[in-house]
Structures are given as C-alpha cells and as structure tokens.
Amino acid sequence: MGYAHRQGIAKLGHTHLVTPDLDKSLWFWSEIVGLEEVARSETEVYLRAYGEWEHHSLVLSKGPEARVDHIAWRTERPEDVDAYRRILEEQGIRCDIVEPGDELGQGRAIRFQVPNAGHTYEIYFDIEKPQAPPETRSTMKNMPHKAWRKGISPVRIDHVNVQTTYPTVEQGIRFHLDVLGFRLREHIRFQGPGMIYAWMSVTPLVHDVALGGVFEPPADQAPARLHHVAYWLDNWQDVLRANDILAEHNIKPDLGPGRHGISRAFFTYVRDPGSGHRLEIFSGSYLIFDPDWQSIEWTEEDYVAGLIWWGEQRPIGQMGAMALTTPA
User: 260 and 164 in one domain?
Assistant: First the structure.
C-alpha cells in the first residue's frame, strides 16, 4: 500500500481499560503496581509510571463488564493525525473524532476499528506533560516521579499484545505494517495457516504491539481481544521483587517468572483482581537498530520455545500458553 512514508506513529501512548470493580482495579494498579494517579473525571482515573512524562499511560473506568475501550498511539507530528484520518477514510474505515478534553490531558484525536482484527485504536499527538506534585516529584531532573515510591514501580509502558480470530489475523498484521507503518520484528508461521503471530514495532523495541490469531476462541468471547498490556522494569531482579510484592498481597501470578524465546524477555503475568485484565511485568529483551532487519521466524517445530524459553510450561494448544482475557 505504501502509506507508511507519509506519516508515522512514534510510540504506544496508553490503554483504556474498563473494569466492573473500579475500586479494586485502582488499588491494584496504584498500590500494587505502583502507578501514579494524575487526574480524575466523573467516570475515569488517569495514571502513569514514575518514568513517564505524558499525562497518562493507563485509563481506568467503571463498566458492567471488563473490556478494552481503546489502545492509543502517539504520532511523530501533529499533522500526522489528519494524514492517518484521510488514509483510513479512503479505505472506507470510519474515524470518530475525539475532541480536545474529551480525554483528560489529551488534544484532538481520531478513533477507529482495526480492519480484520476489530480492536479500537486511537491516534493522537497533542498531550499534556504535567509536572509531578511535590510529594511524588523526583529530585532528579530527568525523572518526573520518585522511583520505588510504592509497589512494583515500573518505569514505563512497554507494549500491548492483542489477538483476533485466526482467518483474519494475517490481514490485520498487513494493516499494521502497510498502513500504520510498523516493522515486523519476529513472527510465528505455520505451514498452511501462514503467519499466525507477529511482533511489530515503530521504535527500536522488539514489539510495541504483538498481534496473534486464535484458531478456536471461546464462544463467549469477541473476535478482538487483549491478551495483555506490559509495563517495563529496569532488570530481572526487579521482576523477582515484583513477585515478592504480589505474594505479600496474596495475588498469584497467572504465569511466571520465566523467559520468552521471542523477545528474549524475562516476565511474570498477573491479572488485575478487579477486572481480569492481564498485566505483563516485563524486563530484559533487546533493541533493534538495524535499518535492514529481517524478521526472525518461528515454526511448528520451535514456537513453543519461542513462547516460553524456560519457566513453567503449561499445556499449550495451537496458539499459546495462556488463556485469553477480555474483549477489546
């Protein structure tokens, strides 16, 4: 399609998660994970990690069931927002306008559904970068909040992992690559079905987003789902410390600690007890600076090691080691 050179996505901005138990979810993300609350509206709470300058990387709101409201991406330039709108509408993709202030701290944005996958994406540029209040402000000039002030204390949001029903997953991957401008970093390919999982990024990270296909999703789940949102810690020891914090509060990890082959990352998965949304506590991995990077391919013979290089091995079906979470 050739659109990627005209405009660009710079980074993952935030996720907006809906939870049936807002108080319990806020306790988890604020006190256990250690995100800092930045602002509230009548219906939403805005949070960010201690190393983040943008207004928020997580929005929580209350709803009758757990779901993902949207996943947001920040562009490289202000004019890129309308450039993406034109391209998407040329392809018949409806774009809803998010007016300045509709989402606290954020300027004008567009929101749309990813074709052949169904996830709701938001694209924005203008965002406030509020100074941390004195009680949480770091004395280090290049860090907004104090590190280790509470809970697990991740540095920043790292990536999202989303899933959709198998037959349309490769078209969803192509949309990310050809229209949104992501680069393919690692992938799983089966003979017959073809590419069934892709790790893609616009930054030097191995993935800002992973998109995979599910061959036989549960009948009560929507085609578009969030597998997890990941927050990054400085090193492996911090992930082990996070497991101690979870244990002190009787929160059992979903899986881990362990190491992925794909991305080479050290991880623990845990669910928000208020909603069931899954968090990946993430460290290690590697950075990619090669402009001619060739995606690493995993196949039927080795993809199990790609998903879990070492650590607890649970029964793995065609599409991974962990159960699915909530509709997007």
Answer: yes
